Each structure stands twice: as C-alpha cells, then as structure tokens.
Amino acid sequence: MVSNTSTAWAGDAAAAVARCAAGVCAAATTETETSAPSIHDFIGLSVLCNGMDAVLSWVLALIFGVWGPAIQARDEAKTKPRPPAEISFATLKPDALVPIALEPGAAVTPDALWVPQRQSGAVVRVDPKTNIADRPISVGTTPCASLAVAFDFIWVPLCEGRGVARVEPKSGNVSAAMPLPVAAPEGSVAVAVGSLWILTDSNGVLSRVDPDTQMVVAEAYVAARPSAIAAADDALWVTSEAGDLLTRINPQTNLVVETVKVGPRPGRVVAGEGAVWTLNRGDGSVSRVDPKTNTLVTTIALGEAAASGDIAVGEGSVWISAVGVPVMRIDPRTNRLVQRFSGDGGGAIVVGHGSLWVAAGSAVTWRLDPKLVAGMRPE
After folding, report:
1. CA max distance for the chain
2. Torsion, CA 163, CA 99, CA 305, CA 295, rounded to 10
3. pLDDT tens across 269-292, in order?
4. What mean pLDDT comes out for the span 128-155?
5. How high is the pLDDT of residue 233?
6. How high is the pLDDT of residue 76?
7. Confidence grade of residue 177 (pLDDT, cut at 50, 70, 90)
8. Cα distance between residue 191 and residue 186, in whole Å
C-alpha cells in the first residue's frame, strides 16, 4: 500500500506535467494560427496533445512503480518510533550510595526521604544533605508500599495489621494504628484538601479520613479491585483493575468526575509533567491521560519486565524501575521510551531533592543526577 504522502506527491507531479503539456499545446496552437502550418506541424501537434494521456500514465507508473516504494519506506521510517537506547546500568556514576533498600512508595518531604522497610517492619528517614539513613522506626508490622507525609506526621499503611500507623517524625513515636482495612498494598494513601484518602475495600471504596479524629467522614466509590491513588491539583486519581479504569474524583465533593479506560490492569499511578501516568501490570505498559480533557492520550509499551515495577515522575521525565532494568526513561514531550538501563537492582524509584533515587540492590540505593542520566548514550 502506498502512503497518503506518496499519493499526494504523485498527484502534484501529474498536475505539473499536465500544466506543462497544456502550455506547450496552447503555444503550438497559437503558432499554427498565426503562420502557415505544414503537414508536419499538424502531425507533431496531434502527437503532443492527443498523447497527453499516455504521457500522464507513464509518469504515474514511474512514480508509483519506481519511486513509490522508496517514498513509502521514507514515510514509514518517519512515523515508526526509534527503539530506546540500551545502556548498562553499571555505566552510571551515582552521586551517593545509601546503605538502605529502597522500596516502592517512598515519600519525599522538604528535608527528608522516607522509605518503608517491609522485612524489618519499619520506616527509615534519609537525610538528603548527608545521604545518611537514620535509625529505623519500628511500626510493629509490615508496612505497605505507600507512605504519606502530612499534618506533621508520617502515615504508614499496614496491610498485615489492618490499619494505618501515625509516626511523629522528630521523636519517632508511633501512635496506635487507625483500625481501617487497607484494600491494596500499592499507593494506598493520599493527601488532599485537609484529609487522608485510603482505599479500604476491594469492591471499590475510597475512604476520606479526618487526620485529627482519625475517623472516616466520607466515602467515594470507584471500580472494583482498586490499586493506587495519586493526588494532584484539584483531583484524586484512582486505578482499578476491574475494567482497566482510571477514575478522577473531586476531593471537594467526594464525587466521581470521570472514568478513563487505560492499559490492562493499571497499578501504580503518578501525576506530573502535564499528565497522569499509570503503570499497567497486564502488559508492562504506561498509559498517559490528559487531566484537562480526562482522555487517554497514548499507551507506551515497555515490555513485560516493567509490569511489576515502580514509576515516578519529575525532572522532565517519567521514570520506571523494574528488577533487571533499574531505570527506564520516557520523554513526555514525545511519549517515547528513550532509554533502558539494564543490570542488577531495580524495582523501586523516586524523584526528590533534585535527584533520582534508585534501588541498586537488596541493601543499597543509588542517588543519581537525572540530567546526567538523560544525557547518557550507549558506549
């Protein structure tokens, strides 16, 4: 099949030939009218003008038969996305090595990076000025993958203990956990308009909690098997595996504004760089949704390895980390996967304090300059 561009170009060429031939015919006719024509003049004019159809047919055959495939290949090359740059993770040079296992759901504050620790049942504060991890604060049981920092406390969902612990960051004191079920282990807590928002039922219940009384004051309802929440500007965004949906909720009214169908089994969700991004567990893709129109813009294939990974946004890019591929970078200007850094580590990533924090092993976190990462090319 010849592309639309090729067809349009061929049409322009044929029209040009027709105009040229018509001009010649007109000139020849005028000349024969003003001078005594010979039999040779009549024969030449007849061959030129009456043979125009044959000339045009020959031109079109030449364009489509000889140049057409080349034009089509050129057009397809322009529209086909370039494959990402494949780079070894080991070629990156970290600004710092932090001896702690970075896990999904870390929270960034102006003076710290807070990281959940599942195996030890704790949360850990990392000082971004010194890159030193403080003493772990035990929360008594396994924390989920999402922390929230608001109202002078660290809020830690406890999937096994069925509740949300409240940690005082300066003293490390832990209050008794709110007796709320946590429906999903990923991205289960968000903060908006003076409230905590927690997915409390796998049937699709999002609970609004007063942080002072720690009581549920309202509920919003989304599709079943909700996975994660992101708060941005005047909206809450909730992913649900049922129906492959992203739901927008107005936190002022607690009402659903819109639902958007995204990639298969959407999990983690982040907002930034002018869009809302879902990491889809069904096929390892990332879907981009426009918050201005509440519509799906595109879904970007990353490969199945990304399905169980983590996603972050900031510093001009969308970042994904999965085991064996610690860093994947999407350029939001082109919606293309532009870099893949393969190697040991991966599975957790966060943007904060002008840096990219990446799980580089079971007990080490790399702090990277995102601009240097974006500028890396294969050796």
Report:
1. 113
2. 60
3. 999 999 999 999 999 999 999 999
4. 92
5. 86
6. 46
7. confident
8. 15
Residue 279 identity (one-letter amino acid): L
Strand-pairing partners, residue 199, are 206
- The token pair that represents 178 in the structure block: 């709110």
Within a domain: 10: yes
Residue 171, burial from CB neighbour count under 10 angstroms (0-12, 13-18, 19+): exposed
Give a yes or no: residue 66 inside a domain: yes
**How many domains in the chain?**
1
The strand ranges marked E within 143-242 are 148-150, 153-158, 163-167, 174-178, 189-192, 195-201, 205-210, 215-221, 226-232, 235-240
Q: What are phi and psi of 215, to 5 degrees?
A: -115, 150
Residues 6+ apart with CB under 8 A from 259: 223, 243, 245, 246, 247, 248
The answer to whether the predicted template modeling score (pTM) of the entire model surpasses 0.85 is no
CA 355 – CA 20 distance, rounded (Å):
63
Residue 265 CA to residue 242 CA, distance in Å, equals: 7
Domain that includes residue 44, residue range: 4-79
Residue 353 lies in a domain: no
Label each residue of 309-354 as H, E or C.
CEEEEECCEEEEEECCEEEEEEECCCCEEEEEEECCCCCCEEEECC
Task: Return the bridge partners of 155, or none.
Answer: 148, 166
Q: In what order do the strands lie in the sheet with 266-272?
A: 266-272, 275-280, 285-290, 295-300
User: Confidence band (pLDDT; 50, 70, 90) for 102?
Assistant: very high
Report d(CA 243, CA 77) in Å as an integer: 35
From the list 373, 360, 369, 368, the residue with the least C-alpha distance to 100 is 360
| Chain center to CA of 88 | 22
Decide if 101 is inside a domain. no
